[in-house]
Amino acid sequence: MLKLVPFILFLLAQARPPQAKLPAPAAPTFFTSPLSVDQMKGKQAVVETTMGTFVIQLLPERAPTHVAYMMKLATDGAYTGTLFHRVIRYGIIQGGDPLTKDPSKVAQYGTGAMNQLKAEFGATPTPDDYSRGAVAAVLAPGKPDSAGAQFFICVTDQKGLQGQYTVFGKIVDGMEVVEQISAVPASANGLPDTRVEIKSVTMRDTPPPPVVPFSTERVAELAQYRAVLQTTKGEIVLKMRPDLAPETVRHFLRMSQAGIYDVTLVHRVVKGFVIQTGSVAFRTTPLSPKQQELIHGMAPEFTPTPNVPGIVSMARGEDPASATGSFFICTGECRALDSQYTVFAEVESGMDIAKAIEAVAVNGEAPVEPITVTRVLVRRAGL
Hints:
single chain, alpha+beta, Cyclophilin, 2 domains, 19 strands, 17% helix
């Protein structure tokens, strides 16, 4: 019998019609955009998830077909109920596969809704390609024209992907939500342990830039503002002095309203001289990305204002423009500081609280007893 096997195989081979061929796979039908680039300019995709909302600024000038396809899918509600089915902690998140709506198809997650779009890598890569917040199309391995509904978002810079995927959007709001999604517990293959769902994707026109807080008020209006330092020793109310340092006042009020000074330690006490707080290095919780954007060096606004008890100034390093938000309250005569630090406020009430803080035991200049500015409230005088 063993000797007959080759002959039998030969007969089977000869039995096939010589002209018969296996059918070739059907060529994909690629999506074509019904919209012009001008019609898609200034559009944003608002992605609401079970972990929060983020906003994608679409880039039709760079990838018009990809942008048009996402706009179509969003309008059709195709993303609703899909999952972020792959995460790499602080690396990328991936979603948009319609198969993820069905928990029984978990083995197929990442394979759905492909082969709809041709690559649009762009003739010249832009400087922020694959940087933090970049949104790009998912591809099948080795197939540049295999993109579809699936997309991924760079949580941190991924420069190693340069030129390999079509970037068609950029996160402009809610990056902290994207970070949180990337950090959910997941399997070794990146599948989240819990379902992180896209509740909706809606299109909108890009809203006008928001007015920067405290940027339009005149000096007289700024003078009406008070900052209430709520500390573990009691409240200290600061009266703003925009007549001395208007830009510093604006920025201090901005940071206060954004919560940057909340849960910050009084980290320095020099008896008969100053108490100091406001340094983000002594904040008990990390800043959010939006809060971090407000931290930068401030231009000095030095005046010969006497540094006497109750005067509040910005702390700084050797560089006159190195103040970033930490400030001190004079509890004694600080005249050696005149004209060298930006005076921007004065204690209106609560000097007794400042003196109580000054009286605590210290190790060098660090309070032995932790004293915290739990919150800073911004309000107008009389309100």
